[in-house]
Design goal:
Chain lengths: 408, 408
C-alpha cells in the first residue's frame, strides 16, 4: 500500500566511502513506498539544510547518475556538524509539516541520532505524525545497538591494507620506526582493525594503541625500544584520540579547538610520538597520517560494507513506512558459521549520544595490542582478503638480515 | 656471448612501489648475459651489505616467487642511506674483486648514483675491470639525464587519486580546509602531480605549493582566504620540503634532525599550515599526510611505471654487459604524439648529486599553482585515468549550495 506524504533525507557528520549507498537505498525504498505524487527530498548540508528549507528533489536524478553517486565518496547532499536543541527541532518540524513531510531520515553517527531523536520529540510535542528514523553511518563504529556501522568496514580495509604496505616499506628501510595515525576520537575499533595486517608475529603492526587505554610516555617508549631490540624495526598504529594517563590528549596542534558538536579536536598524535622516539630513543622515526583519505577511498571500499549500507537503509525506509518511528535501523550478525546479517531497529533513545567503546576483551593484557578474538569480529567486514606481498628471504635468513640491519 | 664474472646488485635510499620490478629486470638480464656458472648476488641492506659481504643468491628464488616480489612494495633486498667516500669504495671494490664481481648495479636516486660513481672511481683507481651502473629510482623524479624516474609514476597516481578522493570528502564537509602533505624534499614534481586531480576549476586541489617557490605566511593565508571566499572550501597540496621566504623549512618537529645522507628531515608542514589557518583565518582546517603510504601502495601502481622500471633495468644490464661502465640507464620520451619511451645511458658523473628541480615553465605566474603544460608531461606516466566520481547537483545548483554552506 502506497503511503501518503513526503520524505526528507539528511546526511550528518563526517562522510564515509559508502554513505551514498545508504542515501540511494533510502531513495529507492521511499520511491517504491510512497504514492506516485510523493516527494523525496534531500536536505543540502545536513540538518541545517532542513532548517533552511534548502532541499533537492531526489527522484529526479537518472538511474545512471544514481549508480555513479552510489560509488562516490563524500556526502552527496553535503553534511554539517550542528546538533539541534528541542526548540530548533520544533521549528524544523514546522517547516517539514508545512511541506507535508511524513518521513524524516537522518544518516549519521551518535550526534546525528541525537538530532533524529530531537526531531521525533518535537513531532510528538506538536502532535504531528512523522516517522523519524536514523540510518547508522560512522567509520568509528561506535554506535550502540548495531553489530557494526556502515562505513566502518571500508575504512578498516583501507587502514589494514595501508598497514601491510607501510610494513613492507619500513621493513626494508633505514628509518626503523613509523607511527601510523588512525581516525577515531573516542573508540578504538578502527585502529584495532590494523591487527588484520599482521599474519606473522614480526609483521606490522607491532604495537596498537586505542583511546580506551591511557598511553603513558614511559610505557610507549619502553614498548618501542623492546620491539626495536627484537625485530630491528617498529610499526605502531595509534588512534588520533589516544589520551595520556592524566586523560590529556596527545598531539599538539588543535588541542584547544572543538568541532561543531563541541567535542575537542584531536591533535597530531603520531607526529608527537615520532618526535618523542627521535628525541628519547635516538631512533629515526617518522609518522604517517592518511586522515580523511581513509574514509574517502572508493578503491578500498569493502563490497560487504557497501551492500549493507544500502541494505540497512532500505530496511529503515520500509520499517518507517510500516508505521514505526523514533528508531535507528541496525545490523545484527547471525549466529551462523558463515558471516551473514539481518537488519533490525533499535529505539533512538538508546543510541543517541551513546559511544560504544571497544570491549575490554579485545584489548591485550599488555594493553599495547589487540587480541585475536577481534580478528574474528572484524575480518568479515572488510570484504575479502587484503593484497599480500612476498619477501625474498626465508624467515631464518630474515632474522640474520635484521641483525645486520641493526648495525646500520 | 656469455660474459665471465659475477654480478652484485644493491638498492639504495627510500623504496618505491616498483623498485623490485627493476631488481627483477636486472636479475633476468644478468642471468641471460652471464655464463652459466656466473653468480647474481643481491646485497642486503644496500651498499652497507656490499661492504659487509652480506649477499644473497638471486638466481635461486623460483619464477613464481619473483613474480610476487615484482608486485611487492618495499626494497626486497633492504636499503640504506649511507654514502661511501672513496676510501670506503676502494675497500668495497676489494671485496667485490675477491669474489670476481665484474658488474655492480645500484638502484637508487641522486645519492645512490654518487655511490655508484665512487665505486666506478675506486675500480679505476685499483685498475680493476668492473662495470658500475646506476638504475634510476625515485618517487621525487629529481634525477637529471632521464625524462622521468621509475617509481614516480606510481607515486603520482597515488597522490593524484588521493587528491580526488579528499576533494569529494571536503566538498561536502563543514570543515572547509584540508592541507595534503606530499613527499619531496627539494623538488616539486610529485606535489605538482596533484594537478591531474583537477578537471573543473573548482575541483581540488585549489592551491599547489612546491619547494621551488618560497611560501610566505602572508601569501599562504591570502591564497586560502581568497579560495575560501570563492568556493567555500579549500584543498591545498603542499610539498613536505617547502621553505619560507628566508629559506627556513616549514613544519616543526624534525627540523633539527638529518637523515643518513646528512640532509635535513622535513617537518610536518601540512599540520603547521592547518594550525595557521585555524588560528589566523578562524577557519576549521585539518591536515592529511599519507607519507610513506604514497610510495608503497601496490593497488595504486601505474602499469606504465612498472613496465619501465623493469625495462630500464634490463637495458642497463645489457648495456653494462656490452662493455660500458660508469653510466646510469635512463628513460627518454619519444617525440611521438602517442606516449612512447626508449632507454639510453648517461654518464654517472653528470647525474650524481644533481637535483633536477621542477622547471619554471610548470609553475603558474601566481606561484601557487601548476600550469597545464605539466599535465601533458605527467599524465602518461600514471598509467591510465583516475577513478572519477559523480555529484548530485549541477554546477549552478552547487554554487547555490556553496553559498548556503558558508553560513554554516
Amino acid at each position: 500500500m502506497s503511503q501518503a506524504g513526503n520524505v526528507v533525507i539528511a546526511q550528518g557528520g563526517g562522510p564515509t566511502a559508502v554513505i551514498n549507498a545508504s542515501l540511494f537505498g533510502l531513495v529507492k525504498a521511499a520511491t517504491q513506498g510512497l504514492k506516485r505524487s510523493g516527494k523525496v527530498w534531500g536536505a543540502r548540508g545536513g540538518i541545517v539544510g532542513v532548517q533552511k528549507h534548502s532541499w533537492i528533489d531526489l527522484r529526479m536524478p537518472s538511474n545512471t547518475l544514481w549508480k555513479q553517486i552510489m560509488l562516490s565518496p563524500g556526502a552527496a547532499l553535503g553534511s554539517c556538524r550542528k546538533m539541534l536543541n528541542l526548540e530548533e527541532a520544533i521549528e524544523a518540524v514546522h517547516i517539514l509539516c508545512k511541506n507535508d513531510v511524513r518521513y524524516f531520515f537522518h544518516i549519521g553517527g551518535n550526534d546525528s541520532m541525537d538530532t533524529a531523536l530531537k526531531m521525533s520529540d518535537a513531532a510528538s510535542a506538536l502532535n504531528y505524525e512523522m516517522a523519524c528514523c536514523g540510518i547508522p553511518k560512522t567509520i568509528d563504529n561506535d554506535l550502540s545497538g548495531t553489530d557494526h556501522c556502515p562505513g566502518f568496514g571500508s575504512a578498516a580495509r583501507y587502514i589494514a591494507q595501508s598497514t601491510v604496505d607501510l610494513g613492507m616499506d619500513i621493513r626494508a628501510l633505514p628509518t626503523p620506526v613509523s607511527i601510523l595515525e588512525v581516525m577515531g576520537r573516542n573508540a578504538g575499533w578502527l585502529t584495532a582493525s590494523t591487527l588484520i595486517a599482521r599474519r606473522d608475529p614480526d609483521d606490522a603492526p607491532h604495537l596498537i594503541y586505542v583511546p580506551e587505554v591511557p598511553l603513558s610516555r614511559t610505557n610507549f617508549l619502553g614498548d618501542v625500544q623492546r620491539v626495536y631490540e627484537k625485530y630491528g624495526w617498529v610499526v605502531v598504529t595509534v588512534s588520533e584520540g589516544v589520551k595520556d594517563e592524566n586523560g590529556a590528549s596527545w598531539g599538539t596542534d588543535h588541542r584547544k579547538k572543538t568541532d561543531g558538536f563541541g567535542h575537542p579536536l584531536p591533535g597530531d598524535v603520531a607526529a608527537e610520538l615520532a618526535a618523542l622516539v627521535n628525541a628519547e630513543l635516538g631512533l629515526r622515526a617518522r609518522s604517517e597520517k592518511p586522515g580523511l583519505l581513509g574514509r574517502s577511498s572508493a578503491l578500498m571500499v569493502s563490497a560487504a560494507d557497501r551492500l549493507e549500507a544500502e541494505g540497512v537503509a532500505i530496511f529503515g525506509a520500509s520499517w518507517a513506512m510500516k508505521g514505526n518511528t523514533s528508531f535507528m535501523a541496525s545490523i545484527q550478525r547471525r549466529r551462523t558459521r558463515k558471516y551473514a546479517v539481518e537488519y533490525g531497529a533499535v529505539p533512538l533513545m538508546s543510541v543517541a549520544n551513546v559511544t560504544r567503546l571497544l570491549p575490554a576483551e579485545y584489548i591485550s593484557s599488555d594493553r599495547n595490542d589487540i587480541t585475536e578474538g577481534y580478528r574474528t569480529y572484524v575480518e568479515p567486514l572488510i570484504g575479502g582478503p587484503l593484497l599480500r606481498y612476498a619477501r625474498l628471504e626465508s624467515k631464518e635468513r630474515r632474522t640474520a638480515t635484521t641483525k645486520t640491519r641493526k648495525g646500520i
